[in-house]
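Journal club prep — side note

Before the paper discussion, L.F. wants everyone to see what a predicted structure for a comparable chain looks like in token form. Sequence:
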Amino acid sequence: MRILAIETSCDETGISIIETEKTTPFEEVKVLANTLLSQASLHAEYGGIFPSLARREHSKNIIPLLVQALTSAGLAHPLPSPRILEEKEEDTLALILKKEMRLSAMFHSDILALETPPIDAIAVTKGPGLEPALWVGINTAQALGALWNVPIIPINHMEGHIVVALLTPFTPKTYRLTPLVYPSLALLISGGHTELVLARGMGDYEILGQTRDDAVGEAFDKVARMLGLPYPGGPEISKLAETAPVAKIPPYPLPRPMLKTDDFDFSFAGLKTAVLYTLKNIINPTQEDKASIAKEFEDSVTEILITKTLNAAVEYKVKEIILGGGVTANKKIREAFQKMVADKLPDVKLFIPARDLSTDNALMIGIAGLIRFNETANDIVAEGHLRLAERIDVNF
């Protein structure tokens, strides 16, 4: 069984092709191709993601990336002459791609020049994310599904972040998907999300807590901008923080918002504001000053994430904790969670995705597609605010 996966939720265009010979994903999964193209450098001048630019770049890059993936997987076989569509097929393609003139042109020039590859299903991100960007992936998936006569599996981007953390590599291109032991707890931290999600079974999710304002990745980006650091801000703040002088008492202490509240919610807007006023009160801050602030900001974020997750893990007696999302690439956060679990939850297993799979990628969408192989749909609609589940009330 082969699945082609498409990811265009934000500023990375991802195409992956995976294969399994078993009837369950909890067996050997071969990665035939996993291509990714980031737009980060293009959005850097805006200090964040510019949606119309993201859509344009996805539209420009997705077909070349698809052909590259098919070639890498050994599935790109040129036809002696381009495929001629029947009138009904042409009408279907035109309807799907009516707002995607660039895509339509590349389908006719590139995709119709290839034999139909042996793909069993196409998994595509339907949300959450930037809707203009999501539509590029969805329209591409639905057009391919119509041309190749294969079903489409709509995928929740955040579930992809959960399941990719469960991959155990055998070789650089072969993985096993570790089955979870329930109940499990997922901390999803990215540029757009900060959520604590209780999993009582695969696909059975309950949101225990979420940010009330900025997502943690968003806070990293905004604080980086205050410190004069480039976008994306997370890696830059971490690099700067590592240069801070060692001090028992931080020279510029910052708050830990909502650290002791009787819930699992987060808030990072106040912390971001505290950084702003700290900088305003320093006349001509030096690089050392900025490094100390970066370190204190990172320490504050880490302490908040650790405390909330630990409290939820104890309250719900979870067996496993999963970290997911781009912020999990942060070295300090990874190490802090490893230490917390070892010291305070020795019977709990911790899953953290490999750094190259922490940020958005199509492999995670393909793995989620394996799990939801039978949940195909027609006429998929982009849902920018799609959630894993509804929030539940927590009573202490």
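L.F.'s comment for the group: The first helix runs from residue 40 to 43. Keep this in mind when we get to the figures.
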